[in-house]
Amino acid sequence: MVQSAGVQAPGARSRRARAARRRAPLWSDLVLLSIVGVVLVGALAAGGLTAYREFYSPSAFVTRYLTLLSEGRAADALQLPGVALSHGDLDSDSFRSASDALLRRDALGTLTDITVTDEHPDGDVTSVTVQYKAGGHLGSSTFRVAQDGWIGVAPAWEFAQSPLAVISLTVRGSDRFSVNGFDLDRRQVAAQGADSSALDPVPMLVFSPGLYSVSVKTSTATAKGMGVLADKPLADVPLDVQATPTEAFVKIVQQRVNEFLSKCTTQQVLQPTGCPFGYAVPNRVIDGPTWSMVTNPDITLQPDAEGWKIAPTPATAHVQLEVKSLYDGSVSHVDQDVPFDVDGTIRFLPDGSASISITSPEQSAPPPGSEG
């Protein structure tokens, strides 16, 4: 049988149709594989970006530091690159002489709700801003971070500026105090030790951010917690705490003053030595004088420089004596109340004891024998 030109035999057409059908699934598979490949590459890129943000970015580095503080891991936080002070951070006298007593777990406050709110590069340095709650108080801090080499294919980071700060603390009325419940003695943390003045601020290094509450609770003084938020790296934050005397301490001072005045009354002279009262007569004393106390002063204490002072307080003594007139020789009996005022100062000695100097407002300095 002869076929005309251009007309395919039925067998040839069926073979070509079957070949076309075989090529169609192969092409579909290639397209599908390409799509899957693109999706996988995108997923890997997204996963890499997520891993970078969570583990290897400047924000992740700062978050790591804050997380260590929130977990009380002060020693680990100090080991992060750039946390310890460098020579460039020691331009201030406060930082050079600052105590590191508060860079420990026991002195840390609570730190929660840590959230990075901003990250932006500025040349070789990246600024990371974080919000948080320190001791329940909302705060915000910005940290400067710079790249510090590589960890494999991921960048490593360090603080370009130490996150530590300084609290310059002055506690009036007590050498002993506590910070966030951690007990300290000024004479142990001050750069000059026991030779330092109680009025000289004591600089102490602290982690920022952090809320630091200073309180006093001793046998002689008390002060409720006064807090300060250290939220700026390398900042010098002043804090002045005034303690108040305890009732027990006031009672002890009252007792010592009463004993002192009682001892004064045993002196049979017109002007008892070292005492805040006396009596003057223009005539000759022939008997006495005999002293006694009518009213003891009601002592109150007020802050005064490195210690306390006894506020000027009225009191009354009583004197009896016989005098002979130098003019006509007559003898008269004196039986009289002698009002006077008492004040004084209280200073704490290096061994922790208190020195009480009792005077009267008219005296410019404590008379001999007035200290106890």
Please tell me about this protein's structure.
The chain is rod-shaped and about 145 Å long. Helices cover 25% and strands 41% of the residues. With 372 residues, the chain is of the alpha+beta class. β9 (210-217) and β10 form a beta hairpin. The protein has 2 domains: 57-243, no CATH class; 247-359, Nuclear Transport Factor 2, Chain: A. It has 6 helices and 17 strands. The model is unreliable at 1-7, 41-49 and 364-370 (pLDDT under 50). It has a 5-stranded antiparallel sheet. Strands 13, 14, 15, 16 and 17 form a 5-stranded antiparallel sheet that branches. α1 packs across α2. Residues 354-363 have a biased composition (Polar residues). Residues 351-372 are annotated as: Disordered. The chain crosses the membrane at residues 30-52. Keywords: Membrane, Transmembrane, Transmembrane helix.
Concise summary:
The chain is an alpha+beta fold.
- By DSSP, the count of extended strands is 17
Categorize the overall geometry: rod-shaped
* SSE sequence, one letter per element: HHHHEEEEEEEHEEEEEHEEEEE
Structural class designation: alpha+beta
Low-confidence stretches: 1-7, 41-49, 364-370
Helix content: 10-25%
Gap between N and C termini: 145 Å
Taken as a percent bin, the fraction of beta residues is: 35-45%
Overall average residue pLDDT: 85
What order do the strands of the largest sheet run in, or round the barrel if closed?
7-6-9-10-12
What is the count of DSSP helices, taking H or I runs of 4+ residues?
Answer: 6
Largest beta-sheet details: 5 strands, antiparallel
Radius of gyration: 41 Å
Keywords: Membrane, Transmembrane, Transmembrane helix
Region (Disordered): 351-372
Biased composition (Polar residues): 354-363
Transmembrane segments: 30-52
